[in-house]
C-alpha cells in the first residue's frame, strides 16, 4: 500500500514516544517555555530594529507577539491532544500528509543545527574577549562538547541546565523592567522622569514611517522563534498532556510582557537615535544611561548564558526532531537509535553539523556560510505555516473522534487560525519587498520546495509507516 492510499491514522491513540524517557518535570517545561525565546536576538539584535523603527518598535513587537501567541495556542492544542517529540512535524503528517511532516521536520532540523553553530560563534566571541589567548574555534569546540555531553546523558540533565539558564535570563529581564519602570516614574535615585519626550520627539512615534515599522516588524517576528521547543520536550515530561497545556498557557502572556515591556522601557528612557542602542545593545545602553555600574559586563554574562541556553536547547530539539522523523520512516535509520532513553546518534550528528557550520564561518564566510544564513532566514515562518494549516484540519477531526483530548483549545476557531495564516502571508509579502530579506525568502523557499519534492516522492514510493513519534 502506498503512502498516498494509507488509511487515516487513529488520532485517539497516544503518540508519546515510548523508547524515550519521561525525565522532565513541570518546572523544567515551564522554564523551557519561558526561556526558549529569550536569546541574543532580544538582548542585542533588537537594537538594530529600534534604530529602524524608532518608538514604533513597541507596536512592531506587539503585532508579532500577537501572531506568535496564536501560533503557540494552535501548537499547544495539537500537542496536548497528541504529545510527540516530533511536535508540529507529526501534526503536519497527520493533517496534510507524510510529505508535509518530512518538509516541516527536516527544515526545522536544518534551522536548529545552523543556529547551534551561530550560537557557538557568539559565545566564543564573548569569552575570547576575556581569554584573548584562546582561539575562538577552540572555545566553540569546548562548548559543543559540553552540551553534546549534556544531551547524550539523561534528559533530566538537559532539563536542569535549561531550568537554571532560563531562571537567570528571566531574572535579568525582570530586574531590568523593575529598574526601568522606577526610572520612568522618576523614583530611581539621580534620575528624572522622561515623560513622553522620547516617544514623541526625534521625528515622532514612527520617525521612519511605515517602512521603518516593517523592518522592525520583520526583526521582531524572528526574535520570537524558539517557543516550539517546549512542545518537543513535553513528550519526555512526567505528564505530557498537562505539562504542555500549562506551559503554553502561562508562557504566552509572560513572554509578551518581557518583549513588549522591554522595548517600551528602552524607547521611553532613551532617544531612539542613541547610537549605543545599536552598537552596545538596548539593555546595555539603557543601563549605562541610568548609571548602573558594570552594566556592560553584567549584560555580557547574561548574553553568554542566553547563547549557551539556546545552544543546549537547539541540540536537544534537533536530535529529538531527527529521531522522530526516522522513527516514522522519514530519514536514515541510524539516526533513530535510542540508547538509555536518548537518541544519541542524532545528538552527535546534530552537534557535528553545528560545528561544521562554525568551521565554514572561518573557511568560507562569503559563500557557503552566507548561503547557510540566507537559507534559514524564513524557515520559522514556514514552520508556523504548517502549524496553522495542520491545526485548521486536525481540530475538526479531533472534535469528531476524540473531543475529550481538546485540553487546550484555539480561540475563536477557525477565524483566528485564518487570521494567523493571513498574518504569515503578509510577513512573506513584506520580506519580498525588502532588499535585505528578499534573498532570504528566495533561499528558504528553494530549500522548502526541495524538501517538499523529496518528501512527496518518498510518499509515493514508500510503504505505510505508523505515526507514533
TrEMBL record:
Matches recorded under Gene3D superfamilies: Amino acid/polyamine transporter I
Stretches the record annotates as Disordered: 1-20
Pfam family, one: AA_permease
Organism: Streptomyces xanthochromogenes
Membrane association type: Multi-pass membrane protein
Amino acid permease/ SLC12A domain mapped to chain residues: 28-460
PROSITE patterns: AMINO_ACID_PERMEASE_1 (PS00218)
Subcellular location: Membrane
InterPro entries referenced in this protein's UniProt entry, alphabetically: AA-permease/SLC12A_dom, Amino_acid_permease_CS
Main location per the UniProt record: membrane
Phylogenetic classification of the source organism: Bacteria, Bacillati, Actinomycetota, Actinomycetes, Kitasatosporales
Transmembrane segments: 29-52, 58-75, 96-117, 137-155, 167-188, 213-235, 256-274, 294-315, 345-363, 369-394, 415-433, 439-457
The protein's name in its UniProt record: Amino acid transporter
Amino acid at each position: 500500500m502506498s503512502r498516498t492510499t494509507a488509511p487515516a491514522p487513529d488520532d485517539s491513540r497516544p503518540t508519546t514516544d515510548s523508547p524515550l524517557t519521561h525525565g522532565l518535570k513541570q518546572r523544567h517545561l515551564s522554564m523551557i517555555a519561558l526561556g526558549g525565546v529569550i536569546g541574543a536576538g532580544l538582548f542585542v539584535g533588537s537594537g538594530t530594529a529600534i534604530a529602524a523603527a524608532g518608538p514604533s518598535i513597541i507596536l512592531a513587537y506587539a503585532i508579532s507577539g500577537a501572531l506568535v501567541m496564536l501560533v503557540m495556542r494552535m501548537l499547544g492544542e495539537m500537542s496536548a491532544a497528541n504529545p510527540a517529540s516530533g511536535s508540529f512535524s507529526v501534526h503536519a503528517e497527520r493533517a496534510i500528509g507524510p510529505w508535509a511532516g518530512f518538509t516541516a521536520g527536516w527544515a526545522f532540523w536544518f534551522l536548529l543545527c545552523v543556529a547551534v553553530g551561530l550560537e557557538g560563534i557568539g559565545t566564543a566571541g564573548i569569552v575570547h574577549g576575556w581569554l584573548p589567548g584562546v582561539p575562538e574555534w577552540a572555545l566553540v569546540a569546548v562548548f559543543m562538547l559540553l552540551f553534546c555531553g549534556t544531551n547524550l546523558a539523561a534528559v533530566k540533565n538537559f532539563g536542569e541546565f535549561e531550568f537554571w539558564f532560563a531562571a537567570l535570563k528571566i531574572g535579568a529581564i525582570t530586574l531590568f523592567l523593575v529598574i526601568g519602570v522606577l526610572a520612568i516614574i522618576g523614583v530611581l535615585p539621580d534620575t528624572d522622569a522622561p515623560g513622553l519626550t522620547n516617544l514623541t520627539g526625534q521625528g515622532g512615534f514612527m520617525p521612519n514611517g511605515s517602512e521603518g515599522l516593517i523592518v522592525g516588524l520583520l526583526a521582531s517576528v524572528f526574535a520570537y522563534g524558539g517557543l516550539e521547543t517546549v512542545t518537543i520536550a513535553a513528550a519526555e515530561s512526567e505528564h505530557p498532556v498537562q505539562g504542555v497545556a500549562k506551559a503554553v498557557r502561562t508562557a504566552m502572556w509572560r513572554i509578551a510582557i518581557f518583549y513588549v515591556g522591554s522595548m517600551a522601557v528602552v524607547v521611553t528612557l532613551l532617544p531612539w537615535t542613541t547610537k549605543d542602542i545599536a552598537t552596545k545593545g538596548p539593555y546595555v545602553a539603557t543601563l549605562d544611561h541610568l548609571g548602573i555600574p558594570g552594566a556592560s559586563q553584567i549584560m555580557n554574562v547574561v548574553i553568554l548564558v542566553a547563547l549557551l541556553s539556546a545552544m543546549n536547547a537547539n541540540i536537544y530539539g534537533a536530535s529529538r526532531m531527527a529521531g522522530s522523523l526516522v522513527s516514522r520512516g522519514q530519514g536514515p535509520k541510524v539516526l533513530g537509535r535510542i540508547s538509555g532513553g536518548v537518541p544519541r546518534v542524532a545528538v552527535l550528528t546534530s552537534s557535528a553539523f553545528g560545528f561544521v557550520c562554525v568551521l565554514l564561518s572561518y573557511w568560507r564566510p562569503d559563500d557557503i556560510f552566507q548561503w547557510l544564513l540566507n537559507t534559514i532566514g524564513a524557515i520559522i515562518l514556514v514552520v508556523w505555516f504548517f502549524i496553522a494549516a495542520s491545526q485548521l484540519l486536525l481540530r475538526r477531526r479531533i472534535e469528531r473522534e476524540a473531543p475529550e483530548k481538546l485540553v487546550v483549545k484555539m480561540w475563536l476557531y477557525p477565524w483566528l487560525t485564518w487570521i494567523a495564516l493571513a498574518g504569515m502571508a503578509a510577513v512573506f509579502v513584506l520580506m519580498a519587498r525588502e532588499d535585505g530579506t528578499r534573498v532570504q525568502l528566495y533561499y528558504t523557499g528553494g530549500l522548502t520546495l526541495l524538501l517538499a519534492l523529496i518528501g512527496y516522492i518518498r510518499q509515493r514510493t514508500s510503504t505505510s509507516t505508523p505515526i507514533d513519534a
